Amino acid sequence: MSFFNWLANGLGTLLGVVAEAVTTVVETVRTAYDNYVGRGGAAKQAVLDQSRSQQERLREVNDEIMHLRNRSMSRGGLSDQDRRRWHQLREERDELLGTLNQAKEVKAAEKIIESEAVLEKVEVDLETSHVLQYNAFADTLGKRCQCGRPMKLQWRRELNVAGPKDFYWGCTGWYVQTANGKACTRTEPLQRSDYGLMTDTSAPEFSVTAEEFGVILEDPGTERIIATRVNDLRSDLAGKRKGVELATCPVHGEHMVLRKKSNPTGLLDAYFLACPRWQPNEQGCPFIEKLKSGSQLAALLKSETGRGIL
Ligand SMILES: [Zn+2]
Ligand SMILES: [Zn+2]
C-alpha cells in the first residue's frame, strides 16, 4: 500500500497534484500518517533508527551476494547449497528494500506535514522546468513500471537547461544487467498531471527562471563557491563513510556516494553520485547519477547541509 495518492520524494515534494488545493492535500497526507502511527507504525526517530539498522543488514546481504557471484564466476557455477543461499539472500534483500521504501514514505509525509506553511503549487512550464529537475534527482516514491521496478524521472542529459518536454519516466531495470542485456528499458512520457508539483518554494533557486538560474551558474565566482561547498560536503561524507540521504541505488538499496571526476571540464562535469558497489571501468554496479545541472547541485546541498546554492 502506498502512503499517498500522489507520487512523492524525500525532498518533501508531491507530484501529480494538479486540481487539489494545498490544504486538502496536506490534510489527506496527515490523515494517512495519523492512521499509520495509530496502528503502531514506526515514526520520527524510531523510523530513522529502524532504517539505519536495516541499511546495515542490507550492506551485509549485498556483500554476501557479491561474494557468491565472484565464487560463481571463478568456479563456473554454484553448488546447490550456495544456490539456495543466494535465493534466500535475494528474497531478504527484496524484503529490506520494501520496508526501507515504506520508511522513506513515512519520512516524506513528515516533511510535507512540517512544511505545510511554505508549500505551494508549481505548474511546470518553460520558466520553472528547473523545479522539476531539482526534484527529478531524488528517489521518486510510488511510481512503478509494468515490470514492478521503480521508475525514475529522467531527462535528456546532454542539455544544460532542460525544458518540460525533455523529461520522461525511465525504468530502473535499465541499470540491471542480465545475461540478455538490460533487464527493462521501458520509458513513459510524463502525464499532464505529472507537471503539477506541490513543493517548498521558499528556496531562492525557485525565485528565478530556469534560464536565469543557468546564467547565474556560469559566473566564475559562483562556480568557485559551489565547488568549494560540494568538495567540503564530499570530504565530510567520506570522513563519516556515509552516502547522501536523498538518493539510493534501485538495485542495491544503499545510499549513493558523492564522487568527483579526475579531469572535469567544469563544475557541471565534475561530480556524480554512484552506488557504493560501483567501480571504475564498468566494473560493479552501473547505477550512477551525473550531477550535470545546477538544480541537482542545489537540491543535494539543500538536502545534506540545509542550504542550497543561491
Ligand atoms: Zn520496467
Ligand atoms: Zn547498485
Structure description:
The structure is a single chain. With 310 residues, the chain is an alpha+beta fold. It has a domain at 204-305. Helices cover 44% and strands 16% of the residues. It contains eight helices and 15 strands. The protein has helices spanning 22-38, 44-75, 80-114, 129-136, 210-217, 220-239, 267-270, 294-305; strands at 7-9, 14-15, 119-123, 140-141, 151-155, 167-171, 177-178, 181-182, 187-189, 196-200, 257-260, 271-274, 278-279, 283-284, 288-290. The strands form five sheets. A five-stranded antiparallel beta sheet has the order 3-10-2-1-4, sandwiched between helices. Strands 5-6-9 form a three-stranded antiparallel beta sheet. Strand 1 (7-9) and strand 2 form a beta hairpin. The protein is globular, with a radius of gyration of 20 Å. The model has no long low-confidence stretch (mean pLDDT 91). It binds zinc ion (2 copies).
